[in-house]
Amino acid sequence: MNPDRLRRSPNVGIVGSSSLLGKELKEMIEEGGFPLGRLVLLETEEYAGLLQEFAGDIRITQIISPQALEDVDIAFFTCSPEIMQSYVASGAPFPELTIDLTQSDRPGKLFLSGVSNTEKLEARGYFVNPHPATIVIARVLLRLNEAFGVRSAAITVLEPASERGNAGVDELQEQTVNLLNFQSVENKVFGGQLSFNVLPESVVSQHTEDRIGQQLEILFGETFPKPLINALQAPVFHGHGFSVFVRLLEEPGLQQLQTTLASDSAFVVHTDNDLPSPVTTVGTHGIHVGRIRQFSDPGTFGLWLAADNLRISASNAIRTAENIMLAAIGR
């Protein structure tokens, strides 16, 4: 790592650049004006030599290796958990500044922009990007808790196929095509027919629920009321959906709750004639708030939320890198 270059225009490496998340991160770096020095795109041997466009230039994808990462100041790992585990098993060192988006459960410093304490950031370290569902849940519960206090919450998370990578998206597409052509479906990624269906996958859902719960506890501390999380696999390609039930300590009115969320730039509050869905939020920023229902029990509300899982995850990773660069400038 070059400390001076990190402060101004760091060299960036994206490990898993052809993954759905890697492509999203690359596009957001290009569109957002990130102060980039040089970009290195890395993949497994299968995709080495792949040509990818960035900022009007053609880049050649390199094989993932410590040598390819030697002159990289910030490394984003957006590969699959399996590739990450293989890299760890090889004994290869990680770059001095690594941001892990793989959800492979490798220990590191969990950082959520706008929630985590930036004073603890250092120019070197291994940072873990929260699960995209954690990002949404944390931000909405934090905002409600700041305004009214949260007594309890129960949340159903509708997971998109893209959370299982390219293979998940491909399998959902193949199942849909086969069903429309009256052919049998195969399932290797999911536990059964996902197309035109909802799957309560026990093992995968439990792992996701546990991960979200653990990450929320790290972000909020043990004293914050632990929300009940239920994850279901939905037949959508991209975008999370959330059904949220929350009991507040105070008793705001419906309009007051809407105004509170609308005043926060992290949220986009929709009207009843323009309700968001995973499909309509793809490619957009922020957490989209749809129908808000007030129940007869005082302080109890139901909310429908939707967010682009890839974009919200990539956005936080970029904000983490920018916060680290600002911290480096101040030292």
Can you count the beta strands?
Answer: 15
Helix percent reads 25-40%
Question: What is the count of structural domains?
Answer: 2
pLDDT average, as an integer?
Answer: 92
Distance between the termini: 16 Å
Q: What is the 3D shape?
A: globular
SSE pattern: HEHEEEEEHEEEHEHHEEHEHEEH
CATH architecture of the largest domain: 2-Layer Sandwich
Derived structural class: alpha/beta
Total number of helices: 9
The residue ranges in which pLDDT falls below 50 over 5 or more consecutive positions are none
CATH fold annotation of the largest domain? Dihydrodipicolinate Reductase, domain 2
Give the strand line-up of the largest sheet.
5-2-1-6-7-9-8
* CATH first level of the largest domain: Alpha Beta
Strand content: 15-25%
Largest sheet: 7 strands, parallel
**What Rg, in angstroms, do the CA atoms define?**
20 Å
CATH H level, superfamily name of the largest domain? Dihydrodipicolinate Reductase, domain 2
